[in-house]
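Reviewer 2 asked us to include a model.

Predict the structure of this chain.
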Amino acid sequence: MKLSIVLSTQPARFEALAYKGDFERHVEEIARLGYDGVELAVRDPSLLDADHVEGAVGRLGLEVPAIGTGQAYGEEGLSFTDPDESVRRRAIERIEAQIRFARRFDALVIIGLIRGRTAPGVERERAWAWLVEALRECASLAEEEGMRLALEPLNRYETDLVNTVAEALQLIEEMGSGAVGLLFDTFHANIEESSIEGSIREAAPRLLHVHVADSNRWHPGAGHLDFASIVAALREVGYQGYLSAEILPLPDPHTCAAKTIEHLRKLI
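Predicted model (structure tokens):
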């Protein structure tokens, strides 16, 4: 297994980001701390100098395992389940742009907050149908480009659509696309799953990526999650991908990033 941490390429309202903006300085710090990769949270690839980003991470020997897409929802309100068809179309087009950007790094494209939630006055079945329709369109491009989408179960306070591993697997099965897999997040699983280790075993056949944060969304070791047991379960199912820290920048960005790698490196 390898270690990465999430870096937002632009300032963002989303709180669980150790690093936001100041790309050059932060990516250099991530490399100095000994991370293997950096997960990039990107609101809109068209606003980035993609060649510069690719050159910076390459120069430092960092991999980019995944591209986070949730800021398109958090900052702009784009989602697959908005009642406005034009908003849904823009959300699909944004993910298609993310897929093309991710191709530079052979990175996963995360489907998290951008799926949205069931809006007032909309039946859940209708929202689910919109979600499936949008995902199928995005998966079609991913298949053409040889890329993969990672569907992330989120806790009930962030969405009512796909909260558990079981629900994610149901949606992936309904999709019928080999380009769609699952992202497992320890923070969300601690809220929604009866057993973190058991849900890892359930997710195993489709598991592409893992987000790590402790029970309080601080760095691993700051809460009550048993990361030795979590890593053991991942090893048991043959997971060899990234553990990527999506954590609050507390007590400060440098400390939380350093504590994460200190706590996890000895376990993997």
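The domain at 2-265 is CATH 3.20.20.150 (TIM Barrel). The beta strands are 2-8, 19-20, 37-41, 66-68, 108-111, 149-151, 180-185, 207-212, 242-245. We have added this to the supplementary material.
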